[in-house]
Amino acid sequence: MKRWLAGLLVVVVVAAALVAWLFFRSPRERPPQSAATRVSAATLRDPALIARGQYLATVGDCAACHTRKGGVRYAGGRSLATPFGNVPAPNITPDPDTGLGRWSFEDFWRALHLGKGRHGELLYPVFSYTSFTKVTPDDALAIFAYLQSLAPVRQTSEAPSLRFPYSVRRSLAAWRALYFKPGVYQADPAQSAQWNRGAYLVQGLGHCNECHATRDALGGLSPDHTLTGGQIPEQNWYAPDLSARPGGGLEGWSTRDIVDLLKTGQSAKGAAFGPMADVVRKSTQHMTDTDLEAIATYLQSLPARPAAEAAVSHVSFDRKKGAELYADRCADCHGVDGRGVAGIYPPLDGNTSVNEPTGINAIRTVLLGGFAPVTAGNPRPYSMPPYAQELNDEEVATVVSYIRQSWSNKASAVRPSEVSTYRHTPID
Amino acid sequence: MNWFVEPRSAVSRRASRAVIALLVACVPCAAVWAADPAPATVAQAAVPDTLQQRIKACTTCHGVHGEGSPGSGVFPRLAGKPAAYLAQQLAYFQDGLRKYAPMEYTVRQLSPAYMEEIAAYFSAQEAPYHASPVPSVSAAVMERGKQLVERGDSTRGIPSCVSCHGERLTGVEPAIPGLAGLSYDYVSAQIGSWRTHTRAAKSPDCMAIVATRLRDSDITAVAAWLGGLPPPTDMHAQPADPQKHTLPGWCVAAAGATP
Predict the structure, then answer these.
(1) Same domain for B235 and B142
(2) Is Iron among this UniProt entry's keywords (chain A) (predicted)?
(3) Which of A63, A289, A363, A413 is the most buried (most CB within 10 A)?
(4) The domain that contains B141 carries what CATH number?
(5) Average pLDDT over residues A293-297
(6) Percent of chain A having pLDDT more than 70?
(7) Is B99 part of the contact surface with chain A (CB cutoff 8 Å)?
(8) What is the mean pLDDT of residues B46-59?
(9) CATH number assigned to the domain with residue range A193-301, chosen from the 4 options 2.40.10, 3.30.70, 1.10.10, 1.10.760
């Protein structure tokens, strides 16, 4: 018995020491400069490199986070909300004091590839280096050249305001041990060049998985569940599963549908709204057709998903009232058959955002309405009226539940209390 | 953080819907639609390729012709306001100068060109004014409101409303909005929002200066007087006065003093 206790004590002590080491070990010193990351000032001024970098920065949607509302692009200041506190995105214009003016490409590479700051400090993974680590040195160099070509803006970046222990940067060592594996994308020789390009964009710069997967309690992503959909923390939208095969969120989507949505914000299967509308407007609509087709090809190859269990509904709702509300408010545009009008009003029957597991997207869309994103392919989009001012929580829950359980839809019903919660989600 | 106004009652909602339907002079189709929602699939066959159809997100609250919602006082009249003013305000919602979650979400995905088109549409609308409810205030308060609107209060450095918003209070081209026809609730809420920094304009922000010089009781007085004014017959914004500077001296001076 005594021996057993002693053994347990040893295990506990070792475990505690390991945790302490993970939390508080010093970050490694700066690695010596390698040939791959040594570049001359002349290289950085190459207009062709800068132009390529501009395209890649758009693909990566860097400006989306690194720009304050109404602020100068890339000058930082947008505060990104996480369950652990807020992290303001820094200024990445080449201002020497407040931006990246004193950074070498080596510094930039270490941030993008290893998630470390200029002084070796560990960066918070709200900066998606978990994805950006896959970016090639060539592409990183082009992005760096582009950022260094911008007009410098003097705007001091605020410090993050995170709760303890997340406020201790070194605690990230433990997080990284669990969730971060650095490494440039390795092409799969068994796949086509197009597929590999798509995989590179989706997994790397596009950082799609940062939203389209479920995060655990520590904000980490499991390598076993990529692009399987998840609720975006704090923003309260659901980024759907991206498999186009049976059981997937994009089941039935053709390559054309995927390209259409990314290029114009609209497709025969659905429209971009919420955060994805931002992504389309700022990033994907500017991508080349070749890259969009590559992305679609890769997404088409994602595996089938296990069939969702039939929703066991513990929530009841008044189906007759739901049908009345639908006929009164929704059917004019989305049709009594829920099939919408191609290219104008998205179908609700079989729509992944209607049927996603949480019901958040349908609830918030009914509350907020809104426009599809303005894109070159859809410069004057149609819109949906908001109903927050017209329908109470119970009415919204009833019509959303009705839609989620009509035609071929078999998703769970939603509660008025959920509507009440999402009615108050701030718009960032 | 209560972003959305809960509906007051189904009755007032139906009443306002009915008023809007009448204003659209679309009584026959409204009647058919109300009687039988089933022919939706027929209507679907041809979605009108009109701006009016495209901007239902706007018109559901502000009215098909930008007449505003009479019952609530929350959704202001847009009809006839200078187009440049309306486009500018939409941009302010995008840039975070004006904060109202439903508007911020609605305008978020729009381009400057589309916002200008939408602004021009509402600016060109002619819709009758309708009276909105005014709280009962004393004659003295109304007198103070009239004074501030017509003459201002030089002792507090408050200019009159008419000095900028036009003699008829219908606004001045290109970008000063009309005040006639706005409800008590809306006017007092907006002046309040300048104080709480949920509404602003690019510098110099003249109304922010006025809002800090008004006493709470002044806001009530101005809003009550404006809310109770009979609507003018000619609701168009006045043309810009070439003799006048675009912005009044007191505003430029005050904004310059506190950059």
Answers:
(1) yes
(2) yes
(3) A363
(4) 1.10.760.10
(5) 98
(6) 90
(7) no
(8) 96
(9) 1.10.760
Nearest CA in chain B to A279: B109
Cβ <8 Å between A386 and B40: no
Half-sphere exposure of A188 (CA within 13 A, CB side): 11
B70: containing domain: 48-125
pLDDT at residue A4 in the model: 66
Which residues in chain B are contacts of A77 at CB distance < 8 A?
Answer: none
Q: For residue B43, give the chain A residue with the closest CA.
A: A332
For residues B30-39, average pLDDT: 39
Checking ipTM against 0.85, whether it exceeds it is yes
Q: 3.90.1200.10, 3.10.290.10, 1.20.1250.20, 1.10.760.10: which CATH number matches A319-423? A: 1.10.760.10
User: Which residue, B69, B100, B125, sits at the end of a domain?
Assistant: B125
Position A31 scores a pLDDT of 47
CB contact under 8 A, B109 and A427: no
Q: Please tell me the pTM assigned to this model.
A: 0.85
- Stretch A342-350: mean pLDDT: 94
| Residues of chain A above pLDDT 90, percent | 84
Mean pLDDT of chain B: 82
What is the longest distance spanned by two Cα atoms in chain A? Answer: 78
Q: Which residues of A touch B54 (CB under 8 A)?
A: 380-383
Is A193-301's fold the same as A319-423's? yes
A278 vs B contacts (CB less than 8 Å): 108-109
| Min Cα–Cα distance to chain B from A294, Å | 26
Is B1 at the interface with chain A, CB within 8 A?
yes
Task: Count structural domains, chain B.
Answer: 2
Residue B24: inside a domain: no
Name the interface residues of A facing B (CB cutoff 8 Å): 68-70, 265, 277-278, 281, 327-328, 331-333, 335-337, 341, 344-345, 367-374, 379-386, 388-392, 423-424, 426-427
Q: What pLDDT, on a 0 to 100 scale, did the predictor assign at position B230? A: 86
Mutate to test the interface with B, among A390, A402, A423 (most CBs of B within 10 A): A390
Partners of residue B6 in chain A, C-beta under 8 Å:
392
Mean pLDDT of chain A: 92
For residues B237 and B158, membership in a common domain is answered with yes
Chain A neighbors of B104, CB-CB under 8 A: 427
pLDDT band at A32 (very low <50, low <70, confident <90, very high): very low
Residue B108 and residue B59 share a domain: yes
